[in-house]
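Fold it.
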Amino acid sequence: MPESLWLAPPGNWLTATAAAIFGLVIGSFLNVVIHRLPRMMQRESDNYVASEGSQPLPHTDRYDLMLPRSACPHCGHQITALENIPVLSYLLLRGKCAQCKTPISIRYPLVELLTGALSFGLIWHFGSGMAGLGALIFTYFLIAMTFIDADTQLLPDDLTLPLLWGGLLINLNGTFVPLQEAVIGAAAGYVALWSVYWLFKLATGKEGMGYGDFKLLAALGAWLGWKMLTVIVLLSSLVGAAVGIALIVFARHGRNIPIPFGPYLAAAGLLALFYGKPLLTLYLGSL
């Protein structure tokens, strides 16, 4: 990563605050992506199965990230604009549907707050130029994938592949790393977990991870370069192991129940985005 990104002075308070407000709005949209994208994939799968041996039978109702309007899943009450203000509406409604009073998941405002806080930190750290805007896009994709994988153990191609290509494009001019490092990072990231997958499968006869994890690590390599891959894999493995042990010990999570790896890769990628050079120096120094 270019030295200038680590030595740049802090960003402007006004710009970072504006980014935080923008992040709250994007967080509200990410909640829609997290909820709907897996269901959109399921509908596409249903259409494919229905079309085998006959004419396709598409759904008549439009269902995508824009339509239908958000509504309470219990009573069908359509969310108004005033009920859709990030965080504030949740507080004013006291965490309940305006009509049927069914509790609303606390995760909705938490995703909005997380996105807003990270947006502030990214613009403060990287500024409002190409690096800052790229870091925002990178982070928004990771947030969506983290919660989708946690819910469904899926990392959709609709997110992993655009993130991968976006990393290569933003590094055409070496925004985060030279293009050569980005290309090698994308290839090495995919091959690294692909190799682990097949070694584990040959040894145990079981699948240890999904193909989406390969693509996510390839995307992280495209954004941050091949030098960061070892740090990312090490961090994600340590956090994943700690969380997995905690789930087994304290939450009585069955050993045979799979734990999604995507959230740990995403968290490690975000840490590498902020502190990649110091972490890499620390790692190399420990060797």
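The radius of gyration is 21 Å.
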